[in-house]
Amino acid sequence: MKKVLLAIVFLLLFSCKEKSENEYKLPGLQEGVEVFRDPYGINHIYAENEYDLFYTQGYLAARDRLFQFEIWRRQATGTVSEILGERALKRDIGTRLFKYRGDLNTEFSQYHENGVAIINAYTEGVNAYIDEALQEPDSLPVEFRALGILPGKWTPEVVISRHQGLLGNIEDELAIGRAVAALGAEKVKSLLWFHPKEPDLSLQPGIDSDALSENILELYEAYRTPVTFEPADLLPEYRNSEVAEILPTKDNPAPDSLSIGSNNWVVSGALMANGKPFMANDPHRSIKVPSLRYMAHLVAPGWDVIGGGEPEIPGISIGHNPYGAWGLTVFRTDGEDLYVYETNPADPNQYKYKGEWVNMEIIQDSIPLKDGRKVGVQLKYTRHGPVVFEDSKRKKAYAVRCAWMEPGGSPYLASLRMDQAKNWDEFRAACNYSNIPGENMVWADVDGNIGWQAVGIAPVRRNFSGLVPVPGNGNFEWEGYLPIVEKPHLLNPEKGFIETANQNVTPESYSNWDAIGFTWADSFRGNRIEEVLSASKTHTMDEMAALQTDYLSLPARELLPFLFDLSLEGDALEARKYLETWDYILSPDSRAAAIYVAWENEIKKQAFRQFVPEEGQAYIQSLQLEKIIEWIRAPENFFGNEANRNTFLQETFRGAVDALSERLGPEMEKWNYGQENLKHILIRHPLSASLSPDKRKGLDLGPLPRGGNGYTPGSTGNGYRQSSGATFRVLIPVGDWDNALGINSPGQSGDPDSPYYGNLFEMWAQDRYFPLLYSKDSIAKYADSRYLLLPENHK
Fold first, then answer.
1. Is residue 324 over pLDDT 70?
2. CA-to-CA distance for 71 and 149, rounded, in angstroms?
3. CB within 8 A of 551, min separation 6: which ones?
């Protein structure tokens, strides 16, 4: 109850403020638009027509996130080198290689029947704000001034870029292929957690094992990584000459594979105290400033939807309309494959396919650099996709086939159709257009229904797993795509709830396994959510908030009984005493949590060193904890016997206590989990390390203490400095819309001078929420400001 009350008190304090009223003309509008901005930075947009609605959404989003928009535009168009110089050249080449080159009208119409008009309206709104901002370039946000650049105009094509989405497994595919080449298929299968079926990891004839060690995916990886800045990128008066002073000094444990995930669940009204269905969602992604998510409320004829999405795309990806609420988590879908070709010794631009030499398609392009030069590049394509690497010595070429290059492959845009769904059937029909990313979409509606539909374009592979590179000779082809509505789905299950947390939730009775993946997240988060939802038939809003930020560790509950059977002495024995009556909750003020997490980290580190042969450690970079616990339960499989396992656990616990003593000092009473030297959140602005101290003020946020880790529903990642987790959360009681709650850290704005830049950071770090108001009367009552935007010809 405490969290909800804090949010409501916060709202009531804001209601005492005097609202600002603004009225001004906005070129491009057709009719008047009313906008209320609430105390948490959300724009509630009331338009008279669809065009004005999305025009205004684009305008206001650009006003809040102008630098984020500019970096997105440059990433999407392959023009980062124009501001960062030659070191960004490979990024830009990669972007252009993977550019969508199909018919744009077909592409836009995949997302909504009015997709062409909606996306055009949105970009026109973005450009309207850019025109406005360029009238006073000295007032642009600090990032523009520091870099000495101006924002560029958007085109609709920028919106549908695929550079930032959750696209596929191509990097894992190459890493697994390399591991198989080093260790053999059976050894790799024993180390990685493939389920519920066992894949074929055989490297086919024609795959040169030694050649896989080349930097094959350099161009792909270059364009998919975040843009980073160096002091030399900035104007001299903004540069920091002592970069090292603000770089992190503490090492984090290596991240687990698949550690970034999400949670969602829907609950039948029969299990809720108010008798109404319920939806919760908290997607977990990298933590940044500004935040990945952006919230808005869009109201016009045919539209009344509130929630969050990404700032650079129109519509709402997670939220509710008057009829239902929906959310998403990742459903592992393998939409990428690496093809290896034999190239013609007489002509490297030809590759062998079905016994014949075939010409690569070649596009000539040029990329502008910061110094004004242009670099000419050749972009090559096979029938399968972009050529990412050519090995002239071995006469090989490598191309990536991407399902997301099909129309509709831009992440989250198909949510536009979901935004208008009135019932389960309409929602599921809208899901059929959601090609990427692979998601678990959940739905709860005012008619009492709860449902789940897996989405994402899924290639059908009949004769290969998709987990290792294959020859591009024509023997390993996709047999089309599985229709999305034929992916796993469920309506109104008997148990009364549906939960997903990136673990495998596909029913055993499902038949289309050729289009379902082999790799899933550890099931700890999902199992904990299911445990709580199964325990009561009268769940309340407060309990749902507590579950979404729950820090109870199921791995701790599993591992501690083994620890209590061990013979320990000295500091290790003293440290174990803190765990004897512990409740398994990784709370910030808990010493037991600090000791346990240090042990868990040491178990993972030492299991990796002990069980992954050295020649494979560059490719299998971590082991899933669920796999390690399986070995601990049945020690004969990897440890040989119980005595060896117990020695391993003793040594790792001793190592954990030593590591904590070195990090925090020998006094255990100071070993609280949530502190700057252990579990904490500190968000660095992208330019922070490059800016001089006087220009950096107010950009970074934190540090603040945190709890949890990557295995708790309140996921905070498995490093001591939190780098991933849920900065956006919603809790939605269906039909009782004004009692919904939300959070979007650190704030709605990306402009450090805005009051909405970091205003939600502390609230989020304390696992609190704000009211996500929906009715116009409530919104108007508590709003910070009201804008009336008028057409240019209004009199």
1. yes
2. 11
3. 585, 586, 587, 593, 707, 708, 712, 713, 714
pLDDT of residue 3: 45
pLDDT at 164: 78
Residue finishing a domain among 405, 421, 440: 405
Does the structure show a pLDDT above 60 at 254? no
Q: What is the pLDDT of residue 144?
A: 97
In a domain, 195, yes or no: yes
Q: What pLDDT score was predicted for residue 655?
A: 98
How far is the C-alpha of 477 from the C-alpha of 190, rounded, in Å? 28
Q: Which two tokens stand for residue 434?
A: 């959601």
Q: Give yes or no for residue 252 having a pLDDT over 90.
A: no
What whole-number distance in Å separates Cα of residue 703 and Cα of residue 248? 12
Strand partners for 24? 789
Element (H, E) at 304: strand 303-309
31, part of any domain? no
DSSP class of residue 38?
-
Domain with 187 in it: 170-228+335-405
Predicted TM-score of the model (pTM): 0.95
Hey, which residues does 497 pair with through a beta bridge? 267
Residue 66 and residue 206: Cα distance in Å, rounded?
A: 49
**Residue 324 CB contacts under 8 Å (≥ 6 apart), including other chains:** 421, 422, 423, 424, 427, 443, 444, 445, 446, 734
Are the beta carbons of 402 and 98 closer than 8 angstroms?
A: yes
**Distance set, CA 719 to CA 467, 620, 625, 649, 675 (Å):** 27, 19, 14, 21, 13
Q: How far is the C-alpha of 709 from the C-alpha of 389, rounded, in Å?
A: 38
Residues 290 and 728 sit within 8 Å (Cβ to Cβ): no
Model pLDDT for residues 619-643, shown as the tens digit of each residue: 999 999 999 999 999 999 899 999 9
DSSP state of 252: P
**439-464: string of b/e by CB count within 10 Å (b at 16+)?**
bbbbbbbbeebbbbbbbbbbbebeeb
Other Cβ atoms within 10 Å of 516 Cβ, number: 22
Q: What's the CATH number where 198 sits? A: 2.30.120.10
Q: What is the pLDDT of residue 793?
A: 85
Provide the CB-side half-sphere exposure for 362 (13 A, CA). 11
Residue 576: inside a domain, yes or no? yes
**Secondary structure of residue 447 in the 3-state scheme:** coil
Strand-pair category, 724-725 with 262-267:
unpaired
Per the rule left: phi > 0, alpha: psi between -120 and 50, beta: everything else, 725 is left
Residue 53's nearest CA partner among 20, 31, 24, 27 is 31
With contact defined as beta carbons under 8 Å apart, do 59 and 26 qualify?
yes
Average pLDDT rounded to a whole number, residues 60-78: 98
- 387 in a domain, yes or no? yes
Q: Is 349 exposed, middle or buried (0-12, 13-18, 19+ CB in 10 A)?
A: middle
Number of domains in the chain: 2
344-367 mean pLDDT: 98
Angle at 281 between CA 277 and CA 286, to 5 degrees: 180
Of 625, 654, 670, the position where a domain reaches its end is 670
Q: How far is CA 380 from the centre of its chain?
A: 30
User: What pLDDT digit, counting tens, does each position of 444-469 carry?
Assistant: 999 999 999 999 999 999 999 999 99
Say if residue 277 is preceded by a cis peptide, omega within 30 of 0: no
| CA nearest to 713, candidates 555, 522, 551, 521 | 551
Please give the average per-residue pLDDT across 131-142, as a whole number.
95
What is the reported pLDDT for 166?
75
Distance of CA 194 to the CA centre of its chain: 22
E-assigned strand segments in 550-671: none
What is the pLDDT, as a whole number, of residue 241? Answer: 76
Type and span of the H or E element at 481: strand 481-482
Residue 471 is classified by DSSP as E
- pLDDT, averaged across the chain: 94
